UniProtKB/TrEMBL annotation:
Pfam families, per database record: PemK_toxin (PF02452)
Gene3D superfamilies (UniProt xref): 2.30.30.110
InterPro entries assigned: PemK-like, Plasmid_toxin/cell-grow_inhib
Keyword annotations from UniProtKB, A to Z: Toxin-antitoxin system
Provenance organism: Parafrankia colletiae
Family under the similarity heading: Belongs to the PemK/MazF family.
GO molecular function: DNA binding
Protein name as it appears in the record: MazF family transcriptional regulator
């Protein structure tokens, strides 16, 4: 189980996540795949599209909110245990992982991915 892998988990319903770290003492850090905003969100959040190439039956996005004063951004970040991971769906390509890295950097969350970069 490595950074960039796409897994199915059960959050009251079966949902896909992308692992942002390898297994650590506290579990795996991951980001949920959510539906695209379908409105203009530049300046508010960054979305990285995922879908069939990553092993998913439907398209979605990895969305991270840009920090702004007086706002607590929702980033859909979660911490999971090995038991939470139901089934591997696929993996992000190196290019797609680079897009996610850039989104995390823009939002100030690069430490999330950097902490788990070595697996």
């Amino acid at each position: 189980m490595e950074r960039g892998e796409v897994w199915w988990v059960d959050f009251d319903e079966r949902r896909p996540v992308v692992l942002l770290s390898g297994e650590e003492p506290g579990g795996f850090r991951a980001i949920q795949v959510v539906a695209p905003a379908n409105i203009e969100i530049s300046g508010v959040a960054v979305e990285v599209a995922v879908g069939a190439p990553e092993g998913l039956p439907l398209g979605g996005v990895l969305r991270v909110a840009l920090p702004r004063p007086g706002l607590i951004p929702c980033t859909w970040l979660v911490t999971l245990t090995r038991a939470d991971l139901i089934e591997k769906a696929g993996s992000l390509s190196p290019a797609k992982l680079g897009e996610l890295d850039e989104a995390l950097r823009l939002t100030g969350l690069e430490q999330v991915d950097a902490a788990g970069a070595d697996g």
